[in-house]
Design brief:
The protein is built from three helices and no strands. It is mainly alpha-helical.
């Protein structure tokens, strides 16, 4: 008889007799071992993936970037000044609207 078939038949017998107290302990132990095994496999997979990602980053950091060319400019000064001036303008408009009291009529009158 095939060991896999034999194990499957034993598992079926355990499941069929799950209402008997002495069989519940065997099923509980089997479930516990399966959960421990799944947890172990998950931890190993997470560690392997983490190491793969970490060494990928290290490889990217150690490789030369474009043969010594200067890196592209991260910020454009004129665009940055335009953005900051628009924020200052919005702040001034907000403060003026707070002080002005609004030009809307009172709806209760």
């Amino acid at each position: 008889m095939n060991p896999l078939t034999s194990s499957w038949q034993k598992l079926q017998l355990l499941y069929q007799t799950r209402t008997e107290p002495e069989k519940v302990r065997v099923l509980a132990e089997l479930l516990w071992r399966a959960l421990l095994g799944l947890t172990l496999v998950s931890i190993v997979l997470v560690l392997v993936f983490g190491a793969w990602a970490f060494f990928g980053v290290l490889d990217d950091l150690s490789s030369p970037q474009g043969g010594g060319a200067t890196p592209p400019v991260a910020l454009d000064r004129s665009a940055l000044k335009d953005t900051l001036s628009s924020y200052v303008g919005r702040e001034a408009a907000y403060e003026a609207a707070q002080r002005g009291g609004g030009a809307f009529p009172d709806p209760s009158r």
